[in-house]
Amino acid sequence: MPVSSASTSDDTHDGNGTRSGPEFSIIIPCYNERGNVEPLFRAVEKAITRYRWELIFVDDNSPDGTIDEVWRLAQADCRVRGLLRVGRRGLSSAVIEGILSSSAPVVAVMDGDMQHDESLLQKMADAIMRDNYDVAIGSRHVEGGDNAGLANAWRLFLSNAGIHIAQYLLPVKVNDPMSGFFAVRREMFVQSVSRLSGKGFKILLDMLMVQETKPRVTELPFVFRSRHEGDSKMDSKVLLQFAQMIFCNLRNRTKAAGAAKKST
């Protein structure tokens, strides 16, 4: 499929012809998602009309050539960027690197497999930029949301069990802390980076657990779709990685509490 040249309808230039940077970055961690790259780009292009945006694909050296497809698009449209990671793997760490590469004040995270509803992205950006929330979550567990796209009972069990555990550990009530689809103020995320475990798949939960002050959070309903193309990343290691993340965060809390006690 041919790729059109970059649209400039949403770009803003100053008197010297300099193009303004993005207001909204969408981070897409991916592995073996070559067939989803352009369809996802086209879907986002239709969905976001009010903000200058960019897509940052973070690819863990996929053998199917995902990064080559990303770079092909990037040559034709400057709203697409690709980060290639060699010798390291993991969704959470990929998201962290993607967000740290962004200059936009608001960043979103979504999967590269077309299971997240791109039409929600603009509402997420609105919630933060217009309504002053810190985090906007695409939620399967509020009215109007649904988990229908989960592939099997094992994934459903992991998701539901994780939610029940996580809700005891968070500083703010969240119905779907295991969601992989959310937007956040970049400044808040960056301030949290040194406290993140960076383990496993649940970067939203990791981020919420380490907040020192209660963030303003809103949840927006979405229906989790069936996979379009590519391979599922869920396997037996996910449960272990989830446990490691919880352990790391609890250990860090204990250390911080001990240090605070010594200083008083």
Describe it for me?
The protein is α/β, with parallel strands linked by helices. The protein has a single domain (24-263), classed as Spore Coat Polysaccharide Biosynthesis Protein SpsA, Chain A (Alpha-Beta Complex), CATH 3.90.550. Helices cover 38% and strands 14% of the residues. The chain contains eight helices and seven strands. Helix 1 packs parallel to helix 2. Residues 1-10 have low confidence and may be disordered.
Task: Provide a short characterization of the protein structure.
The chain has helices at residues 34-47, 66-76, 91-100, 121-129, 153-166, 186-192, 203-209, 237-263, and strands at 24-30, 53-59, 80-84, 106-109, 135-139, 182-185, 217-221. The chain is of the alpha/beta class and 264 residues long.
